[in-house]
Design goal:
Length: about 220
């Protein structure tokens, strides 16, 4: 998969996407990730990318011209252009799975008060929000999407790392898990898990996942 990101803060991407699983996916050529500075498509002496909102109001908006030029320069056949903003549909595991099936994502990150509406109307194929809170810019949301999508790409997770049986994969929260020692500070691992009876273990895990989901996220059971 190829992912291009448009941002005013390319340096923010150094670090989180250069470690562990994402680093390995990039080294293995499973993810071709490119970070682009939006200012490279602003041609005036001050490389202006923002301006005041028509009709007044606080703050600044991202201008259409640099964004249109940048997207038109980076977009290919089949590219999915995705805006990151609080006004987008809520990003979740199902959407991560959907995006993992695509060849090319172009993530357009926001800043200031957001985008000129013509960017949303004409350039965006989709708009995603990572949650109902306001961040200083769209870099972290883009990294969240890149991380959640990349680990679903075939060949990225090794055998000991599986995405098959995890939270949300069955629409439920994950069941409680334990590792050695079986007893720690008088806290014992549930006997069923050390019984070796896999049918019983599977049954217990299903019940626990349902119970935890009912308690913490009944919305997931709707
Ligand atoms: C955001 C979110 C988010 C809003 C103002 C950037 C900021 C600034 N993006 N999910 N929540 N964006 O808060 O995606 O433009």
């Amino acid at each position: 998969m190829k992912i291009d990101v448009l941002t005013l803060f390319p340096a923010m991407f150094a670090g989180p996407l250069d470690e562990s699983i994402i680093k390995r996916a990039r080294a293995a050529g499973l993810l071709d990730l490119n970070i682009h500075n939006l200012r490279d498509w602003a041609h005036d002496r001050h490389k202006t990318v923002d301006d005041r909102p028509f009709g007044g109001g606080p703050g600044m908006l991202l201008k259409p011209e640099p964004l249109f030029e940048a997207v038109e320069a980076l977009r290919q056949k089949g590219t999915r252009v995705i805006l990151l903003s609080p006004a987008g549909r809520r990003f979740d595991q199902a959407i991560a799975g959907e995006l993992a099936g695509r060849k090319h994502l172009l993530l357009v990150t926001g800043h200031y008060e957001g985008f000129d509406e013509r960017v949303r109307e004409r350039l965006a194929d989709d708009e995603l929000s990572i949650g109902d809170y306001v961040l200083t810019n769209g870099a972290l949301p883009a990294m969240v999407v890149i991380d959640a999508v990349t680990r679903l790409l075939p060949g990225v997770l090794g055998d000991d790392e599986s995405s098959a049986d995890e939270s949300f994969s069955r629409g439920l929260l994950e069941y409680p898990q334990y590792t050695r020692p079986a007893e720690f500070r008088e806290m014992r691992v549930p006997d069923v898990l050390i019984s070796g009876n896999h049918a019983e273990i599977e049954k217990w895990r299903r019940e626990q996942a349902k119970r935890r989901t009912k308690e913490r996220r009944p919305d997931l059971l709707k």
